[in-house]
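pipeline stage [seq->struct] | target=Phosphatase | organism=Undibacterium macrobrachii | residues=290
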Amino acid sequence: MSIQVINTDPFANLNVDLHCHSTVSDGVLSPAEVAQRAHAQGVDVWALTDHDEVGGIIAAREAATDLGMQFVTGLEISVTWANKTIHIVGLNIDENNPDLLAGLIKTRSGRQRRAEDMSADLAKVGIPNSYAGALKYVGNPDLISRSHFARYLVEIGVCEDVSAVFKSYLIEGKPGYVPHRWANLTEAVNWIKGAGGVAVVAHPGRYDLSPLAFDAFFNEFKALGGGAIEVVTGSHTVDQYDEYTKIASRYGFMASRGSDFHAPDEHSPDLGQLPNLSKELIPVWRTWAK
Ligand code: AMP
Ligand code: MN
Ligand code: MN
Ligand code: MN
């Protein structure tokens, strides 16, 4: 059960969802369909944050504007830091910034080869042709992701649901996991800042880092000009809302809120359904929400 914390700051009481995905990355709804769903769920301020891609922004913005919902331009960049994958959300960016666009092309470029390697590894454990199977779920040929493999493995009955596929096949140490080097933290933060945006650590509670490594990471992110962390996200438990509220205060980060919605009936909560940020936090949307 989650507890709704009522914030006396009027900006903080907006229904804000600044993290979700469309078919332009590993979501199952088109950008316009995600906009419609967000609006139907009561979202007032919304960002589409596809992985390593801004290709859905125009359609998303148009749909949001038609619905009278405030749109924030966003994305989620895959980063490798200390050999771990970390996701950095960028908000309020100029999606036409040339350095950002070039950086995203570079970041996406290894996905195809990685997918072929994943398919070869899965074949060795008795799951053939998963590359072709995953492709059936891909909406953007530049953005084949583990989620597409997971959906295919559910389709053929290997596991009950995508979370089970990740647990048994697609996370580090499992047979279909292929290590990959993404953008580095400095690049990702600089692309976002260079495009006029705010860099936000996505779902910090999901990373397997020691307290010392976390401290080094947050200090480095701060020194690079990172501005915020997600506190209330579909990937956090209620205890982690408290934990990352304290961390945001300790390091002087603004806070963000986002469902990380990918698909109805998958692991993430629906758009706009999470509790508000607690009142001691500075919402990342404070400077631009109307
Ligand atoms: P990729 O960018 O190809 O490595 O895929 C990462 C995506 O896989 C994430 O953005 C999530 O959508 C999904 N994902 C990662 N871990 C899990 C998990 N344990 N359960 C379900 N989905 C996951
Ligand atoms: Mn995803
Ligand atoms: Mn993520
Ligand atoms: Mn995400």
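stage status: PASS
auto-comment: Residues 111-124 form the longest helix (14 residues). The mean pLDDT is 95.
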